[in-house]
Amino acid sequence: MEPVIYPLTPEKALSILDVIEDYGVVSVDVDNAASLLDDMLESNAKKLQYARRILGEGNVDKAVLVVRDNAGILVIKMENVVEMRVVVRDYRRLIEDLSLNAG
């Protein structure tokens, strides 16, 4: 299955991250080239909390929801330093609730 990409505005990405738990978070990965803290976080909840804090401090350069292999992956890149990936189980409802359109 070819991936389907849903482009997101920075504002939409932030709003999704605020409610992402409602869609069944499977995993969270945060890579921050300017910090080692992201490597020490173990739970998805702590990683999401860290991601939200970091997003509040900078600008989102690119945000997309990628649907591939029966998974929805929210990808947010910030200032070429931070990349966040959140895999959600109920991506179909997320797409519907937020009226996302493939780009």
Secondary structure layout plus pairing:
Layout: E1 4-7, H1 10-19, E2 25-32, H2 37-40, H3 44-55, E3 60-68, E4 71-78, E5 82-88, H4 91-97
Antiparallel strand pairs: 1-3, 2-5, 3-4, 4-5
Written account of the structure:
- By secondary structure, this protein is of the alpha+beta class.
- It has one domain.
- It has 4 helices and 5 strands.
- It has a 5-stranded antiparallel beta sheet.
- A hairpin with a 2-residue loop joins strand 3 (60-68) and strand 4 (71-78).
- It is globular and about 35 Å long.
- The two termini are 17 Å apart.
- The model has no long low-confidence stretch (mean pLDDT 87).
List keywords for this structure.
103 residues, 5 strands, 35% strand
Could you report the average pLDDT, rounded to the nearest whole number?
87
What is the 3D shape? globular
Give me the secondary-structure category. alpha+beta
**DSSP, total strands:** 5
Biggest β-sheet description: 5 strands, antiparallel
Radius of gyration: 13 Å
Into which percent range does the helicity of residues fall? 25-40%
What is the distance, rounded to the nearest whole angstrom, between the alpha carbons of the first and last residues? 17 Å
Q: State the domain count.
A: 1
The count of helical stretches stands at: 4
Order of helices and strands: EHEHHEEEH
Q: Indicate the low-confidence ranges by residue numbers.
A: none
- Strand order across the biggest sheet? 1-3-4-5-2
Beta-strand level of the residues, as a percent range? 25-35%
